[in-house]
Each structure stands twice: as C-alpha cells, then as structure tokens.
What does this fold into?
Amino acid sequence: MPSPLETLKSRLADVNALRSATAMMDWDQQTYMPRGGAEARAEHLGILSRMAHETFVADETRRALDDAQGSAEGDDAAMIRVTRRDIDLATKLPTKLVEEKSKLAAIAHERWVEARAKSDFAGFAPTLERMFDIVREEAEHLGYTDHIYDALIDQYEEGATAAEVRAMFESIKGPQVALVKKIKEQPQVDDAFLYGNWDEGAQSKFTEHLAKAVGFDFERGRQDTAPHPFCTGWSVGDIRLTTRYKPYLGSAIFGTLHEAGHGMYEQGSPMAWDRTPLAGGVSLGLHESQSRLWENIVGRSRAFWERFLPGLKESFPAIGDVDLDTFYRAINKVEPSYIRVEADELTYNLHVLVRFELECDVLTGKLAVKDLPDAWNAKYEEYLGITPRNDAEGCLQDVHWSMGSIGYFPTYSMGNLLSYQIWTALQRDLGDTDALISSGDFASILTWLQDHVYSKGRKYSPKDLVRQVTGEAISSRSYLDGLERKYVEIYRL
Amino acid sequence: MPSPLETLKSRLADVNALRSATAMMDWDQQTYMPRGGAEARAEHLGILSRMAHETFVADETRRALDDAQGSAEGDDAAMIRVTRRDIDLATKLPTKLVEEKSKLAAIAHERWVEARAKSDFAGFAPTLERMFDIVREEAEHLGYTDHIYDALIDQYEEGATAAEVRAMFESIKGPQVALVKKIKEQPQVDDAFLYGNWDEGAQSKFTEHLAKAVGFDFERGRQDTAPHPFCTGWSVGDIRLTTRYKPYLGSAIFGTLHEAGHGMYEQGSPMAWDRTPLAGGVSLGLHESQSRLWENIVGRSRAFWERFLPGLKESFPAIGDVDLDTFYRAINKVEPSYIRVEADELTYNLHVLVRFELECDVLTGKLAVKDLPDAWNAKYEEYLGITPRNDAEGCLQDVHWSMGSIGYFPTYSMGNLLSYQIWTALQRDLGDTDALISSGDFASILTWLQDHVYSKGRKYSPKDLVRQVTGEAISSRSYLDGLERKYVEIYRL
It folds into this structure.
C-alpha cells in the first residue's frame, strides 16, 4: 500500500498532467491554432481545468496531504507547505466557477483578438463585464479583510496587498515623474534607425542567437511567435518562449530577452522537482524581476551591445553604420507612449499604475466596464501626458483581462523594483558586471542567479526569498538609484 | 437530474477532452517539442491516457450507456452503437496495460528517431521487443478465435481478419507482380528533374496551395512538418496535417495531398457531431481510401497537372521546361524501392505485404525481434527484388511499431483498393472526372465524397458504408483495372 506521501505525489502528478495539457492548449491557441479550433478549445480547456481542479481539491488529496504532513522532511516538507497554500486557495473556488472562467477565457481571448484588430471595445465589453463579474465572485470566495484587490493579488504574489502596492507606487511616482520631466527638457535621442521592414526570418534567427547566448537552453525549450509574447512550459525540460516581429526592431529583441529571462528561471528548477509543485517561479513579481533583469539591466546595457552590435548590423544591414553610443541611447529612449509592452523602462510603471487603479475602480463598482476606454484615456493623459488615438492602442492592448488575470499587473512593477534590487546583490558578489557582459560571460551571471534564485523554485515564500537574496524586503532604492544613474548619463542631465 | 443520455454525453465529452490533450501532445512531440521535453511528455501521456481509459470504462459510463440504450433514436442510437463497440474493446484492456503502452510508446518514439538516424536497429530492438510483448498481451485480452492478428486488426478495421487480408493479398499479388514485370521490360521513365535542393519555404507554400485548392480548409486546420507525415486533430474545426521536405520534390507534394485527403475526411464530419464518438473516419481502411484517392487518383492524374504544372514550374524554376506528358510519367514512375511512404502506387502493396507477414511471424513467435532486419531484407529481395542497404531504409523506416500500432499496416492496402472502388462509384455519378480536375472543379468531387462518405462519420460500420457507397463489399476489381489502364498507357505496354 502506498504511503500518504506517495499517494499525495501521485495525485499531484495527475493534477500536473492535466495542467500541462491546458498549458499546451493555451500555448497552441496563441501560436498555431486555426480559428476554427476556438470553440472546441474552449470546451476542452473548460473540462480539463475542471478535472484538474476537482482532482486537486478532492478529499483524497487533502487527506493524503494531512496524513503526509507529520513525517515529511526537507524538500517534501516544503512541497507540502506549497501544496497546502495552493489547495487552500483552490478549495475556496467552486469547481463550477473555475470551469466557467476557463471557458469564458478561451472565448474572451478570441473576442479580444477580434476587438483589438478592429479597435472595437464595445464588441468586447459584454465579455469583459462577465469576466469582471466572475473575478469579483472569485475574490469573495477567496476572502479578504481590507480591500477586494488583496484577495486577487495574493494569488499571484503571496502576501501582497493593495495597500502595499499603493505605497510602492507612492514611493516611485514622484522621483520617476521628476526624472521624466527633466528628460523632456533635454534634446530627444534618435531611434529612427530601429524602425524598418525587418525580415522575420532574420529576426527569428538573431533573437534565438541572443537567447542562446545569455543561457536559455534550446535543448529544453523553443521560441515561436504570438501576438502577445509570453513564456510557458510543462516541464523543466520543455519551456516555450514566444516573441513577435514589428517595424520596431526592439520589439522582437527585447521581447525575446524578456521571455528568455522568464524561461531561464523556469529552466533553473532542479530536475528532481520536475512535475512537482516545487518547480517553477515562486511568484509573478520574482518572475518578472528575472525577465526585466535580462531584458533591461543586461539587454539594454552598453556592455551588452558592445558585444552584439556588430552581429546585429550584419543581420540587419539596413540599420546602417550606427555607433555604440548612438545605439545604446536609442534603445533607452524615454518617451511616454501608448503600449505597455513597448514602453521604455522609465515610464513602464506608469502604465501599470493606470491598470491598477482602473482594476480597483471596476472591482469596487466605481467604474463601469463600458466606461473603461474614457477612464483609461483620461489616466494616460494625466500620468503620461498622452491620449491613445483608439482602443487598440488603449484599453484593448493587453491580453490579461481577457484571461481574467485581474490583480496581476502590479507584479510587473514589483518585478521592476526587484530586478534592480537583486542585481545590486549580484554585483556585491560578482563585481564588474559590465566586464562579464561585454566579454560574453553570461554564465557567471546565470550561475549566480541559478544558485540564489532559480534553483530555489517555490521552496521559500516570495518575501522570504527576497530577504535571503537581497538581505531586505522589497524596496525601491536600487531601482530609483539605477534609473537615475542610467538616465542622467544617457540624457546628459 | 440529467437523463442517462445526458450523463453519457457528458462522460464522453470528458473522455474526448482527455484524448484531445494526448493527441495534441503527440502532435507537438512530432512537430515542435525540444528533446528535453521527452521524459515529462512520456509521463504526461501515460497519466492522461490512463485517465481517459478509466473515465471511459468507468461503471458510471457503462451504466449511462445501458440506461440510455432503450430511448435513444437516430444519431443518438448510432452514437450508442459506436460507443458500445469502443467501450467493449477498451474494457478488455487493463488500465495498467494501457498506461504502460502509452509510456513505452513515448519513449520508443525517441529511441526510434535516434535508431533510425544512426541506422542502429540493435539500439531499438529491446524497446520494440517489449512493445511486441505488450501488444501480444493486448491481443490476448481482446480475444480472437482464429488468429492472434484478428484481435489486433479489428481495432483499426472493424470486422477484418487475417484470413481476409491474406485473401486480399492473394487476389492482387499475381496481377501486380505480372504488371511490374511487364513494366521492367519497357524503357524506364526519367524523373531526375524532380530531385534537387528545393527551397523549404517554396515547398511549404506550394503544398499549402495544393491542399487549399483541392478543398482542405485552412480556417479549420493547418500544416506543419514532421519526420513522418501524419494527420491528426481534436475537433472537426481543428485538423492538423504534416508534410516533409526532401530532395525528391514529390515527397512534400504527394505527402501533403495524402494527408489532406485524411484531413478533408475529418473536416467533413457534421459540426453537430464535434467532440462526440460519431465524428471522424469510420476505419483506417476507409480513411486511407481517401488519402490515396486524393494523392494517387486525383494528385497523380494527368488532368491534375494540366492545371498545376505551370504554377509548379514558377515556384521551382530549377525543374526546367518539362512538358506535361514527361511530368505525368515521371510522377508515376514504377520502380521497386526501399521506402514505403515513397513507393509508387503499383509496388506499394508489396511493402505492406512484407510488414503484414513479419508482424504475424513475430506475434506467433516464428520470428524473434532481433532477427527482424534479416527477415525484412529477405522479403524485400523476394517481393521487390531489392535489398535495403541499411536498417534506416529497411525495418526502421516506419513509425508504427514504435507506437505499438501492430495490425495497422494492412489497412493501407485496403485503402488502396477502396480508393479505386469508391472512385468508380463517384464516376458513375459525376461522369468526366478529368474535366472536373483539369478545370479545378474539386468542389464537385469533394461534395460527392462529403455526401457519400465524409458526412457519415462513424455512423455506419465500415463494411456497411462500403456497401452503401459502392454497392458491394471491398473488392480488388476497380483497383486492378485502374492500375492496368493507367500503366499500360504510361509504359506503352
């Protein structure tokens, strides 16, 4: 007869298989699925999500969890802690609600793609309204003491609260707006040479070259294209990146480096934890810290392009004979713009702030879904000084709401802060990181991150891990210092 | 409370979702999966197959089936008949055996790919031996009265037996060998211009153009590449073809037309039957009749290339200024060769005969797995007059055994016969099919097949369907007549 621990592991393996199936169906939907497959996909995702949920929250799983608790040690004890948190979160959600959300998400994704293509928010609004209803219901089931948002963000970032998020934005808003203002008074850098009709094959090849160079393992992953780049996976040995090809050459390059950051974090879990709850990133904020670290701190550094600019010019001759300094300034151009995923590093958090405030307002009933476009545009005018010309470049730009991922956006900003905070810790150990980057020694950097972050998987809580790695709680100091230092030089302030 | 019929349908929808997941994982494994994903894929496939099997054979499903039997009418009655056959087949197999086979198949696929690359049968033999053991065990569970093979082939072709297959080969072997012999005495046609270093992008584009022209719906399907072309799907609205690019230009072209034939059959099920047991092809023989019909009878006709040769020359200028007659003879060149999937129409069935006889011999213990290469080569010498130079072009060429699909091959030959037999019936209704083909009116042909075959899904047994469509049981007459007429002209016999 199997021990409770064995029973638990076997049940969790079943859940993992079902979730892997839905992850792959989701990946396929965003990369390769023909339009005709949408209806069946929605049904399949609904059914498999329900099965995963039912298997996970079944009495037998919980009983095995309770019975295994006492005797488990080391990794097993950590696995049990993580599973208990997950199962508590999941048990609060009725199976029917989970299935309904999953089905709606599949349909909403198709509607969102269409609506964005036609810049037709009205066509998407009823579906989004239904999604907010479901998410509101979810929050009530999950429970919260202070703010409905707390229930939602905790799913993505254990222990985070709306109040913390608000405080975080308070601490950075002032300095960032001031810095942006100073930059506006300086002559703008020129990045026109980064726009063109770039060959997709060349972009695919070059971005894979970069991802490989920094350490993403293509024996255990691959890259495809999707309208909205993302990283997913169903095994430590099979992690999928996506990127996209746009007239702005940086879209593909920094899109790939961003997703490769997520991907290397996922690939860095111990193989022994594959298909268990301990594998993968511990929270969305930590995850985002790694995508932003590789995208911004490494990928947008002068040292990085000291190494890769010659190759870039070879792959894209139309870029011309641009020198390193001009190139470096171009890829770090600061300019309030419409699209979050293409925002510069400095204004990025203001995009997130807009979404955070709108989500809170819709959730609490202060704002109707149908009024989102106007509210969105007003906030863009207020924080960024620009008004989207249409909803495609306004409130229809992100995939998240169609998926019901509400409460998710602030983790992007937490990631931005953590990327600099972790980098500061890394520099204390490794010293001259510019020298490592320009010489192509990404292995030293990856190994440090591997040792301190990736190999820990979900073993420690996000707050514990941040303390272990950086010696303190999440803080905006390194982030503000880093940006100040970087942009004072670039814009000669 | 749901009615027994509703309960049954809901259970079957769950099974369908699980099988769709395994189908997609299998598709991904053969098209995009990185090597590092193999181990987890094997585990996931094993678990999900077990779940599908358990859900399908569960008491609750069977009870709902029994209870729904009396009241069901029309399509529902047919669905119940089909489900009963499937469930009877499946219940005979122990869950553990199903899971073990599925896991082994995933591992065996990787081993087979490696072994074929290195032409190293010995490296694959132990895995294959284990697979034959499992299949033998399967046959014993399924049961048979006459020959162990009957239990296996019945899974793919309801009601077919080893004796029938043997009789089929008896009826065609003589005339075919005689025809091949006569052809050997004639001057050989030249197809050298079909070999070259063809651009993969151009092949992809041209083959998709052909598939679209004949009627494969790319809104409800797509084409990718795989080492061994196949067609799969998980919805009437989402059917996936694969093809491959080789120095022989015909590999991609006829590979695509072949898989598009399978694909159009799948796309032709009524949308109302999507995700139910009634959707899809009724048997492998019928399925193959459609792939061969579109590949050989349509795709290798003079009329077809009257229409498409100019476009082919534009896409592949290196082919030169070949005239229609030369091209038509080249693509119908008859020459005993090593690779089944690239065999000409005339010698194809001899390849199948080799596999059928070897499968019987291994299953009954007359032949050891380790001796397969020698036996294989001896039979190729006997039936085709050639000896493979290595196992990659010998007994390692096919994917089937690695998947445990033993008893499957004869359905290819049944498909060859049925393709001509069904075409003869179609011609009785449509008259001058050459005129339809050369004018690009594939819609008339597709509509006829749609009405008579595809729209029937699995509603009737294969034997019933063949009688309905052609007015008789499977017969070699149309097939032998068709080949005789075609090759007498091509080789000026």
